[in-house]
Specification:
α10 (about 295-305) packs parallel to α11 and α11 (about 330-345) packs antiparallel against α12 (about 350-360). By secondary structure, this protein is α+β, with helices and mostly antiparallel strands. The longest helix is centred in the last third of the chain and has 16 residues, at about 330-345. The chain has three domains: about 20-320, Alpha-Beta Complex (Spore Coat Polysaccharide Biosynthesis Protein SpsA, Chain A), CATH 3.90.550; about 330-395, Orthogonal Bundle (Helicase, Ruva Protein, domain 3); about 405-490, no CATH class. Helices cover about 25% and strands about 20% of the residues. It is built from 14 helices and 19 strands.
Amino acid sequence: MGYPDLCHVNQSQTSFSAHCFAGLAKPMGLVEGPGGLGQGGAAATLGEDSRESEGRYEDYGYNAQLSDRISLDRNIPDYRPKKCKQLTYSDDLPQISVVFIFVNEALSVILRSVHSVVNHTPAHLLKEIILVDDNSDSVELKFNLDHYVNKRYPGLVKIVRNSKREGLIRARIHGWNAATAPVVGFFDAHVEFNTGWAEPILTRVKEDHTRIILPAIDNIKYNTFEVQQYANAAHGYNWGLWCMYIIPPQDWLDKGDETAPIRTPAMIGCSFVVDREYFGEIGLLDPGMEVYGGENIELGMRVWQCGGSMEVLPCARVAHIERTKKPYNNDIDYYAKRNALRAAEVWMDEFKSHVYMAWNIPMNNPGVDFGDVSERVALRKKMNCKNFRWYLEHVYPEMRIYNNTITYGEVRNSKASGYCLDQGSEEDDRAILYPCHGMSSQVSVFSFFSNGPIISRDTGRCLEVEMSKDANFGLRLVVQRCSGQKWVIRNWIKHPRH
């Protein structure tokens, strides 16, 4: 049964009468309008009679029952640097299409994302909102969502539904295909926008269409929905291509201007804004990648190497829920590994070995099918992109390089079949022998030749294995006069010297 059509509005309106609130939100158990729990970004709690929240944490990775009680229109603290509030912007800025990707989110969280962007974006700049449903299972994300947005924001919100689960990467490409504004913003569907977020971003894109702009991220606590300020940061990554926040570059710190754009090597991935046409020209996100993980790093490498740039804007802030459970949880490590190798093979030249080292897999026959990268290699050649060494020197000089590594892998002794050199307890930090398992504690980096002894430069003695009833597994490591024992690196990989 549908809900009564109590209000007709145009898309430029951002406030509605009480009977409209009741007509749309209340039958779904949701709250609109000012006031109520969590107002101003304050922490909120439910009464002790609430018993459902534990199960819904498991479903969503945040307190969905509490979210349902917080107004879709709540305000959050303005965490912009003070100087941002004094800046003025041209009236002649490009319009933006805002794309939200979701799969099995709580309806109230999705709708709060929608309300938030409408309430905090000038109507003449917001051309459309595109909701990409990556084949959700939830019934309320079908009829209820369609009915609500069509009545509440007629003509403003489009819904794109994937007929099968595509993953975040390809879902974003579907959103790009549906977008019609000259600028497109991609966001997770569990965010809240701050005052004045759009104008500084659109200004930077208008000045240079090859810039990809990242709003500064604040945090929405998954259990109380309190909004917490995060410090200004750039977005970096480790050699496994896992993203992380890093200190802004020294030249930004030296300026002493908190409003200045922050050069960033890559992006965390929950939100970014780009010129629509330029994004197509540089190859969108890699459609050969699966689910998510690594695509955000690959985009940063590609943009910088191919003549563009990426920056964080402290004056544009978006708050984001860091969920305790991800919607694509199954085998996410595998997909992150697969996508990382794909990026490494296309963009990282001789430094790709660092990625294989980080994931503890051999470069020859790695056991991971990362697919055909020929089209991405052709794209790089067509765009005449710079090499990865240039990127490390000019964009990510903070990244530590392991160019002097000769070999890496599991280290086994000829006298102890099936046992590997491993890290002992943290208390004494001694090396031990342990059944080989291939995890990171057994990935060793040594400057010795495979199939030979490990010799102490100080004493000339060798690291060897001897039988001992008192030791774990009856084996212990000793430094003694060399007896001819040999150590072999299993699946060792030669790393190029420079």
